[in-house]
Amino acid sequence: MNDETTVVDASAPELLLDQHVKYIQELDTKKNDLEYWLTEHLRVNGLYWGATALHILGHSDALDQEQIVEYLVKCQHDNGGFGGHIDHDPHILSTLSAVQILITYDRLDAIQVDKVVDYIASLQNEDGSFSGDSWGETDTRFIFCAINCLSLLKRLDDKRLDLQKTIDYVVRCRNFDGGFGSSPGGESHAAQVYVCVGTLTILGAMHHVDADQLGWWLSERQLKNGGLNGRPEKLEDVCYSWWVLSSLSMLKRTHWIDAPKLIRFILEAQDTETGGIADRPGNMPDVFHTVFGIAGLSLLGYPGLVAVDPVYCMPRHVIQRIGLTEKH
Amino acid sequence: MAEQQDDVPFYQKPEWADVVPIPQDDGPNPLVPIAYTREYSTTMDYFRAMCRAQEKSERALDLTKIVIELSPSHYTVWYYRQQLLKELNKDLKSELEWIEWMVNEHPKSYQIWHHRQVIVGRIAQSLFPSTTTTSSSTLSTAQSTEAAFAFDDLPEALKTTAQELVKSELEFIAESLKDDTKNYHAWSYRQWVLAHFGQGPWWTRELAYTEELLEEDVRNNSAWNQRYFVVTNGPGGLTEEDVQREVQFAKSKIEKTPSNESPWVYLTGVLRKGNHPVTEIKEFCEGLLSVTRANFSPFVHATLLDIYEIEAKEQRSAASVEKAKEEAIMLAEKVDSIRSKYWNWRKSQLQKIDVVA
């Protein structure tokens, strides 16, 4: 648990913990019409968002674990990859989410781990990047999914991988402002920064990052209202509380953000009627912003929350349980 | 919806009579029951049947369009559609028209933009001899600043074709950008188009395009990023002449909007890339201090802090340390107090500089 700290402003609203638990448990179409959650191709991702949020809130029993495991097993294909839902083609995004959920519930035994590794290895390209699926779309997000997943499975030493090329590719995505984009030359964006810094952290290649320059760029994401944006001159959004903060955490510079102001911003984006957190105060909540708002609060030291790992976005005790060295 | 000829759902038409639809399997206790409208539900049942059988036919192709228009982010259907387009040897130009319509409806769909890239990539492959060892493995339509075609080596006729193709793609993207000038997908695809066809004349025109966009909105960070992309990846790379021109350009924009982050970062980025010391713009920055609204710009002070810090280290000057400290204090206390922890850290770093008074 996070310690009692002085990061919370007296005037900030309180965390509606029980309401968020209920919100996640009740995620069904009668009550919500949330694009992310309701779109079937995102069901596995949505499960990861919901389960992770519940764990950080200290309510890991709030969902039926057996049901979840049974469901995920059905989503695994012969080639080892997981689809976003039953009968959906495998994709690296849902493969990572499935593995994260199973490890969080300590049920990796339920699936074929070797095949997952086979699947991910098959997605590496000549230039070191990873495609999202056999369709060929590439994006630094997919590199992170691959490396993150292999790291969780302790299979980064697989001989089919060329990790040096992966590092080289990520470095090519580093921009003149110190940030990272989705491909070489792509505009720096906080979410891409998270996946690139996460990749380099896991692979022990952080010397390629100018921590002071990038740390400053990340701290510049904070606006006067306390919220964080993802690029210069864009609007604040609660999910950047995660992308920016976790990146700063990996750079050991979280103190460069004004924590009380950001905490207040996240708490104000809560929906007091239904529970859940929105992208910004006044908007409709969804499970995506809920998990990243809660994870952000945990990273900021908000009292009473389970500690979250900034690299994996999973409960810290789970990462410790599986014996992954703390890299931050 | 495009091409909806009548109100009868496709699955009630005779040509679909032989197909056995496969119902949704949510498992025994559906965890996240998703409410379907009946049409969507039935459509997906038929789609599942087609997909399982991997049927390659016109009706399958039609069905992928129906499914996509109902649920554009359903990524499985896109891959199936691409395979069908190939197997059935369909005209890709009309596919491009449909994609343009879809992009208008769903400008932030990863799948639609990627589909465009795949189709254009295929069109290009059929028209031009490739220089890279693009393996026949479908795995990589990798985003890359590497060209798949050596434009300069193409015969004149093919050069014209390439230019036309690039031009129409850039126009398509520009249209889309009119609705959202910072659409990340659009910019990403735009970079791919520029690079994929080699070092053609479109690079120079792109520079002018970024200038137009910055005239409209000087705070458009995507346009600034694109400008950097163009000057560093275009023919000849970043020359000294380019550096001078870009420095002037950035300075002129800074004078208009001194608190605008993008031109500042661009300016220092170009200087660094061109191997110019940032101390070169000291006079420019100091000059801005006397302009009131510029004086409140965090970036004027931040840049001066960097400059004085460098001077302090290079000349071991206590006076420079003092000037740097003043900037840090100004930032922490007056001009950018939300980041006071960062500026105070910068100030603490100044104490470590070895000086000879």
Number of separate helices of chain A = 14
Largest sheet of chain A: 2 strands, antiparallel
Which fold does the CATH topology of chain A refer to? Glycosyltransferase
Question: Which structural category fits the helices and strands of chain A?
Answer: mainly alpha
* Helix share bin of chain A: 40-55%
Q: In the CATH classification, which architecture of the domain at 7-90 in chain B applies?
A: Alpha Horseshoe
Order of helices and strands of chain B: HHHHHHHHHHHHHHHH
GO cellular component, one term (chain A): geranylgeranyltransferase-III complex
Keywords (chain A): Metal-binding, Prenyltransferase, Repeat, Transferase, Zinc
Family (chain A): Belongs to the protein prenyltransferase subunit beta family.
Catalytic activity (chain A): geranylgeranyl diphosphate + L-cysteinyl-[protein] = S-geranylgeranyl-L-cysteinyl-[protein] + diphosphate
Outline the structure in words:
The complex is a heterodimer of chains A (328) and B (357). Chain A has 14 helices and four strands. Helices cover 45% and strands 2% of the residues of chain A. About 3% of the residues of chain A have low confidence. With 328 residues, chain A is mainly alpha-helical. By secondary structure, chain B is an all-alpha fold. Among the domains of chain B are: 84 residues, Serine Threonine Protein Phosphatase 5, Tetratricopeptide repeat, CATH 1.25.40; 80 residues, no CATH class. In chain B, helix 7 packs parallel to helix 9 and helix 12 crosses helix 14. Chain B is elongated and about 90 Å long. About 3% of the residues of chain B have low confidence. At the A-B interface, helix 3, helix 4 and helix 10 of A face helix 3, helix 5, helix 7, helix 9 and helix 11 of B.
